[in-house]
Every structure is written in structure tokens, then in C-alpha cells.
Amino acid sequence: MTEASCKISDAEWLVMRVLWQESPLTASLVIEQLKSNTRWSPKTIQTLITRLVKKRALGVNKVLGLNHYYPLISEEECMREETNSFLQKVYGGSLQLLLANFVKNESLSEKDIQELKNLLDKK
């Protein structure tokens, strides 16, 4: 992993998702995109952006007096780190236990089952 951290809160994930979809963006544009999905104030969103910059998950460039934010870490890398953290915390690192629990307790369609089989066959 790079020096950036994926140890981000659920709220910070929402900010990152906006910037993973399109970047760089100003805080105003991030706020505009998030205000329809959340009840957060602009100040709250700006605080989340500031935290993400401090965690080195976001970078910032100043252009014509405006800060433009962009991800320093990929969504895939964050997903991988979050998955590994969850796997360690909940299943003691056992992928087999996670999959067994998932398959036993989830309603899987034939398509889901075939996709899982295809993934395993590729390994």
C-alpha cells in the first residue's frame, strides 16, 4: 500500500466515492453532489474532506485560488484493505469461514452461484 491510508469512516467513504467517480473537484462540487444523498451541512462535508487530506487519502491542488481535491489511493486498494481488515477482525483471517458463512446464510441465485464458480475456476 502507498503512504495513504484507507482507514476511513463510513462518512468519509461517501466523499471518496464522489472523488473516485470524478476528480479533481472543488469542495463546492463535492458538497453539491453529496447534499442530495445526505443531510450533511457544507461545513460537515468540508471537515470530512480536510480529514481525508490529513490521512493522505486525498490530495489537493490550488488552482486560481480554489482547492481541487483528488484521490491519492484507488477505490480498489481501499476495498482490498477494508476486506482484509474485516476478514481478520470477524473471521480470524479465514477466507474459508467467511465464504462458508456467506454461502450458508445468503440467498444465492443460479447466476450468483455460477459467477462464484467461475471466479474459483480462474484461481
Explain how this protein is built.
GO terms for molecular function: DNA binding. This is Putative transcriptional regulator. Belongs to the BlaI transcriptional regulatory family. The chain is mainly alpha-helical and 123 residues long. It is 61% helix and 11% strand. The protein has a 3-stranded antiparallel β-sheet with strand order 1-3-2. α2 packs across α3 (42-54). The mean pLDDT is 91.
- Helix-strand pattern, N to C? HEHHEEHHH
Indicate the structural class: mainly alpha
Helix proportion: 55-70%
Major beta sheet, strand line-up? 1-3-2
Contiguous uncertain segments of 5+ residues = none
Rounded radius of gyration (Å): 18 Å
Number of helices: 6
Q: How many independent structural domains? A: 2
Q: What is the 3D shape?
A: elongated
Main CATH class of the largest domain: Mainly Alpha
The share of residues in extended strands comes to 5-15%
CATH topology of the largest domain: Arc Repressor Mutant, subunit A
According to DSSP, the number of beta strands is 3
* CATH architectural designation of the largest domain: Orthogonal Bundle
Corresponding CATH superfamily of the largest domain:
Winged helix-like DNA-binding domain superfamily/Winged helix DNA-binding domain
GO molecular function: DNA binding
Protein name: Putative transcriptional regulator
Family: Belongs to the BlaI transcriptional regulatory family.
Keywords: DNA-binding, Transcription, Transcription regulation
